[in-house]
Structure formats: C-alpha cells, structure tokens
Amino acid sequence: MLKVSGVHTFYGRIEALRGVDIEVRKGEIVTLIGANGAGKSTLLMTICGDPQAAKGTIEFDGEDISRLRTHEIVRRGIAQAPEGRRIFPVMTVLENLQIGAAISDPARFGEDLERVFTLYPILRERRNQRGGTLSGGEQQMLAIGRALMSRPRLLLLDEPSLGLAPLLVKQIFAVIREINTQQAVTVFLVEQNAYHALRLANRGYVMANGRILMSGTGRELLANKQIRAAYLEGGH
C-alpha cells in the first residue's frame, strides 16, 4: 500500500532523512521506533507532503505521491494524527470532527460521526465542549477521531501515547488495534513506547539519525538484544 524508497528530506541544509526505505502492506500495523530527533516525525510529514522529499519516491497504491500537495494526498486516502495532537482548542469537539470530515461525502457524516463516538464514547459526552478544555487523553482521542472522519485507508499516528498515563496508553493502543481489525484501516505508527508499539505491530522499523537501521516482525524486534538494551531495559 505504501512504499518509501530512498527518501531524503532536508530542512534548509540539514538532512533529516537519509535514504529511507520502508513498506506498509494493506491491513498491517507497522511501527517505527527510535529516539527523539531520529527523524520519525519528519518521515510522516514527508509522506503527507510537507516537507516534500528532495530525493527518492513515495508510492501509495502504486501511484507516486512524492510531489503532491497535502490536500491531494489526503483525498487519496491518507490521514495523520500528528504529534502533540494539534486540535483546534477554541472549537468544540464536534467542530473539530467536522473539520476532519471536510473532504468526505456529507451524506455519510452522521455515519462517520457515530463510528468515532462508538470508539470514544467520552467524545459523545464532550461534543459541545471546547477542545482546549479536554484532558490530554481526550485530546488524543479527538485527534485520532478527527483523522478517521476523512475515511482514510492508511492512518498515520505520531506518538499517540506521548504524555499519557499508563492506563490511558493501554486504552489508546487497544483502540488502534480495533481501528485496524474492525474498521480495516492500515496503520503506520510512530512511537517512542517501543514495548507497546512492537507488541501491537505486525512489523517494525528502527530509525536513528535519519536512517533505517533495522527491521523485522514485532516479535523479532522485541526479542532483539540491541533493541532491548536501547529501548526496553529498565522497564516498559
């Protein structure tokens, strides 16, 4: 479904991605782990067209999307819940979800809204509450729900567990699995919580300094001594 081949991305003269190759197959959950500053978020933003890749190609369903604008990429079936949530704080929960549905068929808005409220019942209760007054966990639910309102076939999630309490982290990952299995949405997950991410994922990649260093199934990477030493030792 998604194929990134030899992608280089720059911020000015700084090379953030250095020949990245990844593949996400239809129906999978694929995770990308790595330390802060490794280039993980830059890869997701490059897939979404901002910034665009300076070299290499990004293909979605066999089409080269490397030079498309972000709104054109979203219309092809890719949506992102960005790092830091980035909801619209002065808008209500419902208004945020309406923004997410801007490119979708208006006739299916009610159906899509109900799907999000079924995943996150608390958002139904908070539908008329301003986004900025929600808790951190509720804002993360809203960010994911907003992305789902565009009916994506590929959902990009950037650090969905960041700053959340352990119980909320488990809830977030449980819903990601449900989105994948029950709603047939392919998921590409960027996450610092390597333990939960690799347990959830079919396959994973490890990134450092803008390069992919290692790949394998989630179980293989969880069992890898280098991965355990770098990301898992001392607790989960």
Labels describing this entry:
single chain, 236 residues, alpha/beta, Rossmann fold, six-stranded mixed beta sheet, 10 helices, 10 strands
Write the layout of secondary structure elements.
Blueprint (H helix, E strand, L loop, with lengths): L1 E10 L2 E11 L4 E5 L6 H8 L7 E6 L2 E2 L5 H6 L2 E4 L11 H8 L8 H11 L1 H5 L10 H13 L5 E5 L7 H17 L3 E5 L3 H7 L2 E6 L2 E7 H6 L1 H8 L4
Parallel strand pairs: 3-8, 3-9, 6-7, 7-8
Antiparallel strand pairs: 1-2, 1-4, 4-5, 9-10
Helix pairs in contact: 3-6
Structure description:
- Helix content is 38%, strand content 26%.
- It is of the alpha/beta class.
- The chain has a domain at 1-72 and 187-236: Rossmann fold.
- Helix 3 (93-100) packs parallel to helix 6 (136-148).
- It is globular.
- The mean pLDDT is 93.
Overall 3D geometry? globular
Succession of helices and strands = EEEHEEHEHHHHEHEHEEHH
- DSSP summary, beta strand count: 10
CA gyration radius, whole angstroms:
17 Å
Largest sheet descriptor: 6 strands, mixed
Return the structural class: alpha/beta
CATH fold category name of the domain at 1-72 and 187-236: Rossmann fold
Helix percent reads 25-40%
Query: What is the count of helical runs?
Result: 10
Low-confidence stretches at least 5 residues in length (pLDDT < 50)? none
The overall average pLDDT, rounded, is: 93
Give the structure's gist in a few sentences.
The chain has 236 residues and is of the alpha/beta class. The chain has ten helices and ten strands.
